[in-house]
Amino acid sequence: MIAAIRLFDLEASNFSEWCDRWLREVAPGSVKREMILIGTGFSTAVTNEWGFMPTNPMSTIKKPKEPAA
């Protein structure tokens, strides 16, 4: 569970596992939107604006592809 992990201890592997589990329950587009939202939060935390984290753990995770319409 991601919520149980301290902010500084979060790694890309945590989010990769979350993504795989979440894809079993919701559509790829929903997971992709949530990944973008979470990634934006981490990007803000990494910048000089906040300076909370050295890197964004979401930056290396591939977003799921949505099926063709």
UniProtKB/TrEMBL annotation:
| GO MF, any single term | DNA binding
Q: Which InterPro entries match?
A: DNA_brk_join_enz, Integrase_recombinase_N
Keywords on record: DNA-binding
What is the protein name for this chain?
A: Uncharacterized protein
Organism of this sequence: Sagittula marina
